[in-house]
Design a protein that fits this description.
alpha+beta, 266 residues
Length: 266
């Protein structure tokens, strides 16, 4: 249960900034004090990274653990449900095709289902009869059924497996309005993965610094690792292999000085 009223919670969340946050300032201060120069929130770089270091061809993202779901695997909507809407659509298309070629298809399906499940055959028979009646009166009945099922899947996807999501030590999803926050953080994670992939494909190094790595005890170790990654990548992109020196000058060189002479002797 949230201890704040909805109005108080809204006011608190609306004051959270998307840039110039405390974790970002810590990283920027450390880099600047150690001689590194950078640009901030460059929109021309995919994802508008918090820190861009073009000589190092490196983009640094300083992520908040909650907003980006640090160490929380949310998956996508189809994985969460265990049902793929496209598979459902394919099933209905195949069912329509079989119904067109074989009017007894539903009756055969009923018999097979009765043998496979422990259910009341009469209930299943009534369901099949009702389905046949609706199909006879409305050939688009199955299509309408699929549309409604897809809508329910898309609207309530996060409700089925949501309790199976495990919080991490630094990212605890709220129980109040949980569906909203799961969907929002999932979108952030998917956007992050897309941006990172685009940057990697264009030869950029991506460094992600998490908020929990910038505590007083951890910041020095974290930033030393960042510095190591920067320098290593700089050498990778600028280092050229040394070539052996081959002289084109012949061994017998012409002499600019005159031949040795015994001066002072007559």
């Amino acid at each position: 249960m949230d201890k704040l009223t909805p109005a108080q919670r809204h006011r608190c969340m609306s004051r959270i900034r998307s840039k110039d946050t405390k974790p970002e300032l810590k990283v920027r201060k450390w880099l600047w004090s150690h001689g590194y120069r950078y640009r901030l929130n460059v929109r021309s770089v995919p994802g508008s990274p918090d820190i861009v270091m073009r000589p190092y061809r490196t983009a640094i993202f300083v992520n908040g653990c909650f907003w980006h779901g640090h160490e929380v695997e949310l998956g996508d909507r189809s994985q969460e449900l265990g049902v793929n809407p496209q598979d459902l659509q394919d099933f209905v298309s195949e069912t329509n095709r079989k119904l067109k070629n074989d009017p007894q298809y539903l009756q055969d399906l009923e018999s097979e289902a009765c043998r496979s499940i422990n259910n009341n055959p009469q209930d299943l028979e009534d369901f099949v009869s009702e389905t046949n009646r609706k199909l006879k009166n409305n050939p688009q009945y199955l299509q309408d059924l699929v549309s409604e099922a897809s809508r329910i899947i898309n609207d309530n996807a996060s409700r089925h497996e949501i309790d199976g999501i495990t919080d991490s030590p630094c990212c605890k999803l709220p129980h109040t309005n949980r569906d909203f926050w799961v969907a929002k953080i999932r979108r952030n994670q998917e956007r992050d993965r897309r941006n990172y992939q685009i940057l990697h494909e264009n030869g950029w190094q991506v460094i992600v610094v998490w908020e929990c790595q910038l505590t007083t005890k951890k910041i020095e170790h974290t930033m030393r690792e960042v510095e190591l990654l920067l320098n290593r990548h700089f050498l990778d992109i600028h280092n050229t292999k040394a070539r052996a020196y081959v002289s084109d000058i012949p061994d017998a060189l012409p002499q600019a000085a005159e031949d040795s002479t015994d001066y002072g002797k007559k």
